[in-house]
Amino acid sequence: MSTDSLPQTPSATTTPLHLPSDQDASGRTFGWQELAFLRQVLDSGVLTSTKGQFVKQLESSFASMIGAKHVIACSSGTAAVHAAVAAIDPEPGDEIITTSITDMGALTPILYQGAIPVFADVDPHTYNVTAESIRAVISDRTRAIIVTHLFGNPCEMEPITQLAKSRGIPIIEDCAQAFLSSHQDQYVGTLGSIGCFSLQQGKHITTGEGGLVVTNDDDIARRLFLFINKAWGYGDEQPDHYFLALNYRMSELQGAVAAAQLGRLQSVVGSRIRSAIELSNKLDGIRGLATPFVSERIVHTYWKYCLNVDERVIRGGAPALGQLLKDRGIACAPRYIQKPAFECEIFRDQRTFGNSRFPFNLARPAAVDYSPEKFSGTYTALSHVLVLPWNERFEDRHVDFIADAIIDSVAELTK
Ligand SMILES: *Cc1c(COP(=O)(O)O)cnc(C)c1O
């Protein structure tokens, strides 16, 4: 094919720059440490964590890193949330408050344990649940509150903790997107009764699939451990299978990679924060565009970088800006998720176990009332947010490229 006749006019502003991505080697870091640990596992011939050392090492290193008493590794973030809910041991039809903007892996475990996910609305600026939105849906059947530190930005925990304490309701923190995020100098995952983390491909650090569940409470730790191990009483004098539970263990192969990845976590988080602040500074003062809101004494670890787009100022709002950025080679996601979790078929049609609709058949009508007027924050958040993938490998040139593209695109949409 001849391209002779095509004008060759690449310019600095139009040549797309490949941005490091967490979906491939460009934005993931695996090195000699991961390989050395994997080799040790294979050489030992012990691939199960019930006998090996790497998962145990991962658990104790992460515990000391975030200041938690117990860490139990498992097969995914979904498994971590499932173990947390199972540790609370709700009665069928009990309610667990959660958020309308999250990963489905944080919701289906509630249903598997026979409990009803009750959705709290989110703050349209932080995308997180708040004490007010939780209070609006609390009932005498509420058995736990799941707070999700979305995109790496911690929820406003003080009033939430106060509310939960006053009602005697335990808090489960979903930290899948919030490794080393902190709130008043305390790491997330240790602010409630149980914290859940994910090591899936696209999280801050990864072992492909994997999870970590965290607690300071000895009894809860015991139940978490049992739930992940078919409730088999390892080490007990007369072990038995004590209750309904699954095999959710992490393998030593995953543990080896995760243990090595953990050594990179501080630097991954530090780098993401530095480049995110740099972008926020560059975008400061642009009318109609809000950079991530971070309140005082909170550390946001930027799993993603969210812009909030005011369509009254920027023509076409987040979708239009997103399209222009994509045209310039910048992957981004207007809305983050296409619709609130409760609009998915699993909730809309209550498709669970056969035709039973269990546990929805036990729900109070108010607990499964998803009327849009109850979720104005959620709908506003989804229509205004533009999510940019973020990565620890971003250098100044990447941030400049993104900033210039945003500034030019906003100019185009406001002229
Ligand atoms: C990724 C994620 C999960 C589920 O984790 P998996 O490891 O993918 O099962 C749960 N909650 C949130 C907020 C997540 O981002």
Could you name the CATH topology of the largest domain?
A: Aspartate Aminotransferase, domain 2
The low-confidence runs, each spanning 5 or more residues with pLDDT under 50, are 1-12
How many domain units?
A: 2
Average pLDDT number: 95
Q: In CATH's first tier, which class of the largest domain applies? A: Alpha Beta
Query: Biggest sheet, in brief?
Result: 7 strands, mixed
Describe the structure.
It is a single chain. The protein is an alpha/beta fold and 415 residues long. The chain folds into 2 domains: 32-264, Aspartate Aminotransferase, domain 2 (3-Layer(aba) Sandwich), CATH 3.40.640.10; 265-337 and 379-413, Alpha-Beta Complex (Aspartate Aminotransferase, domain 1), CATH 3.90.1150. The chain has 13 helices and 14 strands. It has helices at 32-44, 54-66, 77-88, 108-112, 131-135, 157-167, 218-228, 252-262, 265-283, 317-327, 345-348, 376-384, 396-414; strands at 70-74, 95-99, 116-120, 142-148, 171-174, 182-183, 186-187, 194-198, 211-215, 289-290, 298-299, 304-309, 333-334, 385-389. Strands 1-9-8-5-4-2-3 form a 7-stranded mixed β-sheet. The protein has a 4-stranded antiparallel β-sheet with strand order 10-12-14-13. Strand 2, helix 4 (108-112) and strand 3 form a beta-alpha-beta unit. The longest helix has 19 residues, at 265-283. The radius of gyration is 23 Å and the shape is globular. Pyridoxal-5'-phosphate binds next to helix 3.
